[in-house]
Amino acid sequence: MLSLAVKTWLRYVVPLTLLAVLALCPVAFIAHAITPPTDLPHARIAIHLGWILAGTVWVFQVLLVAAAAPLVASIARDAPLSQLQAFIAAARNLGRGFVPWAVAIAAIIVGGVAFVVPGVLLLGLLALTGASERLAEPLPAPLADSISVVRAHAREVAIVLAIIIAANFAIALAAHIVILPALPKTKPPIAMLAPARTFVRIVALALIAGSALPACVLAAIYQRANAAAVSPASRA
Questions:
Q1: pTM
Q2: Per-residue pLDDT averaged across 183-210, rounded?
């Protein structure tokens, strides 16, 4: 599974990264739009924003799975697409997966607001919605497909999601340590506050650049599970 994901990512790193910018466009917009803080409270808000991005970017990384899915499938079939074909197929599937993704995220958020544990469980169960081969079917077909696959491979999905979320926070932590100086409690000079904007931008760009591989891993879990389910049926 990991080998399939890495092969796909290495072969299609350019189209996947371009589509990561599209899938994570709110993150890219924040990185572009943020202005240098003019005082200490605004600097602290910017720092909090960087951490918020790290904690919520999984929402868009789950969408990117839809872009990775056809590329992972092509490598699994040993029929790789050209770079242009890969971009078109990934972009088309990304668009096809938008509505099912939005419904899945809404369900996860509602579950999380009502009770924390159901929200976490729903994240796991619906994480493979974008990878579903039933995206073109009416709802809730792709969501039900994701739930079916995850139930059979819950451990793998849980581990991958935990690693993804931990990696997102690790990016923010590394950027915080490297970029941000200790902010004084009294009024600092404006120049000392500038790294707060740099922190947000570096975190955003690193999250965008690093989202393609985890998307490929989630798509590879679905692809391997689907292939394993089809294979016994074919032999029968």
A1: 0.91
A2: 88
